[in-house]
Design goal:
This protein has 226 residues and is an alpha+beta fold. The protein is elongated, with a radius of gyration of 63 Å. The C terminus is likely disordered. It has a domain of 92 residues: Ribosomal protein S16 (S16 Ribosomal Protein, Chain: A), CATH 3.30.1320. The chain has a 5-stranded mixed sheet. Helices cover 59% and strands 15% of the residues.
């Protein structure tokens, strides 16, 4: 009887979830199995693998042939690397200590690669979430501005009266000031002029009054007194 390490499908439609099992090669995919080694969830990034490492190494060492997908999983988790080093110890090419040192170095390197990938994916996810939040904030602000504009009543435009230039007013006042001063100075002169002109008229009236006396006839021509 040949044994195979393969996947057994579970989960709902569009989101598969697999069991890693050891089964007879003649059994159906989702039929009877000999032993369950772990689970494989490809819906996460990176994929989640939960595997019994020691039992997997045992089944590979006794000749169980993995399917293509399970072979990648066993290589990713280091099962095939550990089985390869164990064959070297069996042949005498390596000691137990050398095998453990080599596997530890390989495991550390692999863990670093996985951690860097996980951190990179987390950074990309955080940046995408930040960009999404920024877009949502812009949409909310635009929507709020539109609502505020719709609820604000229209403001009537009021025509403003023209404002006179403040620099022209002092100039006009300065021009009007000398005219007013000249008018005030001329007023007393105009009032005093008639008084001076009236003064010479008095002797003229006296001359008229005295004129008949000088022209009066003398002697018989003079009127007699009654």
């Amino acid at each position: 009887m040949s044994t195979r390490i393969r996947l057994q499908r579970h989960g709902k439609k569009g989101k598969p979830f697999y069991h890693i099992v050891v089964a007879d090669s003649r059994s159906k995919r989702d039929g009877r199995f000999i032993e369950k080694l772990g689970t494989y969830n490809p819906n996460t990034d990176p994929a989640t693998i939960d595997l019994d490492f020691d039992r997997s190494v045992h089944w590979v060492s006794v000749g169980a042939s993995p399917s293509d997908t399970t072979k990648n999983i066993l290589s990713y988790t280091g099962v095939l690397m550990k089985e390869h080093l164990m064959r070297g110890v069996t042949k005498g090419a390596l000691t137990e200590e050398q095998m453990e040192a080599k596997f530890s170095a390989w495991k550390e390197h692999k863990t670093g690669i996985i951690d860097s990938k996980v951190s990179g994916l987390a950074k990309v996810k955080a940046e995408a979430e930040k960009a999404r939040m920024a877009i949502e904030t812009e949409v909310k602000e635009a929507r709020a501005a539109a609502i505020a504009a719709a609820n604000t009543p229209p403001v009537e435009e009021v025509e403003e009266a023209p404002v006179e230039d403040a620099t022209e007013a002092p100039a006009a006042e300065a021009e009007a000031a000398p005219a007013e001063v000249a008018a005030e100075e001329a007023a007393p002169v105009a009032e005093a002029a008639p008084a001076e002109e009236a003064a010479p008229e008095a002797p003229a009236e006296e001359a008229k009054a005295e004129a008949p006396a000088e022209d009066a006839p003398k002697g018989d021509d003079a009127p007699k007194e009654a």
